[in-house]
Every structure is written in C-alpha cells, then in structure tokens.
Design goal:
- By secondary structure, the protein is mostly helical.
- 65% of the residues lie in helices and 0% in strands.
- The longest helix is centred in the N-terminal third of the chain and has 25 residues.
- It is globular, with a radius of gyration of 18 Å.
- The relative contact order is 0.14.
Length: 225
C-alpha cells in the first residue's frame, strides 16, 4: 500500500508540473514559438488525462496568429478583472506590494536558478508557473498556495466574462487550480472566506476603490458582485 501511494503521489506531482508548464506557455502572449509547441503540449497533457486546455489548443491550431494576439490583448491587457499579476489581487499598487514583489525575487534567488523576468514583474503568473514546473517545484508550490485566492479570483473573473476567448483562458487557470489541494471556491465571497478580511492601506488605493475593482477586498465591497 505504501508503494502504491508513493507512486500515486509521484504521478500527481508530475501531473502538476506538466499542467503548470503548459499553463505558463498558454497564458503568455501568443507567438510562433507557442504555436510550434502545441503538438508537444497535446501529447504531454493527454498522458496525464488533462483536457482543460483542449479548447485553447484548438484555437492555437486554427486561428491566425494576429487574431490570437488580439484576443489575448482584449482579455488580459484591457481589463484589470483579468490581471495576471498575483499580488495585484491582494495588494494593488500600494507600498506593501513593493515588499511582496521583493519576496518573489528572493524566492527566485534562493532557488539557485537565474530567473529572467524579461521586463515583467516577478509575480507574473506565467513566470511563477514555469518556476514551479521547472526550477523549484516546492518553492513554486508554496507561492501558488499562498496566492491561491488570486488564482481563484482570476478564474472567476474570466468565467464571468462569458466570451469565447475568456472562457478558454478560464479553463487554463482552472487547470492550475486543480494542481492545488481542495476544491475551488464557487464565488468571490467564498474566496474571501478562505483568507478572511485583509488589512487595508488607504495610501495609494484611491484609484482602485471604484465599483469595478475586482481585487480581494473586504466582503462589504465585493459581496454584491
């Protein structure tokens, strides 16, 4: 029984690494390199019976690259409800976020791997996912668990959009959530219940406290969404 359980745990860890690497690529800006990787992604995901990414892979195989890039910009660059930066959801553009970003950098340095941020902030989800898949699975797992609420809010925001392109990306984020313990919360209030009310900082938050703020705010501000 112990041997069987050990093999099962190993398979689960390998599945998580495959899903996280695939999601890292698929949540990045589409380019020729990504299109060339689609057959490899299909094979690797099929080996682990992962189907969440199938719709997006279909689009990558059938749509022109320019259309794929336009869709990506529409989904991720034109709406803060789909931010790919994990600490945005918890800290916004506050003084505390600078400290949090420094923590991400410290985790990368401690791994012994040279992490090329390529001009992105260190909490950029595709970067965190590749770090968890390739560089340091244990440290990456801790980051993803710590920012599970951010992942779930991103997933919910994409699902609420109800557009084709947002739905396919929502499935990718949902796949990432399946690599973490427990079931995904059903709504924003359930996400808030996972962590309780966060501390609020008013300095620097004024531009983000409007009615369309999707972040992890006290329930009084998100309960009606």
């Amino acid at each position: 029984m112990r041997l069987r359980r050990g093999r099962s745990d190993q398979a689960a860890r390998q599945r998580a690494r495959v899903v996280r690497q695939a999601a890292s690529w698929c949540l990045s800006y589409p380019d020729e390199v990504l299109l060339a990787r689609v057959p490899v992604l299909r094979t690797a995901l099929a080996e682990h019976e992962v189907t969440h990414l199938d719709a997006l892979l279909d689009e990558l195989e059938t749509l022109p690259l320019g259309e794929l890039q336009r869709r990506y910009v529409d989904v991720f660059d034109l709406s803060r409800r789909h931010a790919l930066y994990l600490s945005y959801w918890t800290d916004g553009d506050t003084r505390r976020r600078g400290e949090v970003l420094g923590t991400f950098k410290a985790v990368y340095r401690a791994s012994g791997f040279l992490v090329d941020t390529a001009g992105e902030l260190p909490d950029f989800l595709p970067m965190v996912l590749e770090f968890a898949a390739v560089a340091d699975p244990e440290a990456g797992e801790r980051l993803l668990r710590e920012y599970r609420p951010s992942l779930e809010l991103l997933r919910i925001g994409l699902e609420e959009e109800r557009s084709g392109q947002a739905t396919t990306y929502a499935a990718v984020v949902a796949a990432v959530c399946t690599t973490l313990p427990g079931e995904s919360p059903a709504d924003r209030a359930a996400v808030q219940a996972m962590v309780g009310p966060p501390p609020m900082e008013t300095v620097g938050l004024e531009p983000y406290l409007g009615h369309d703020d999707p972040r992890l705010l006290p329930l009084s501000q998100i309960g009606g969404r």
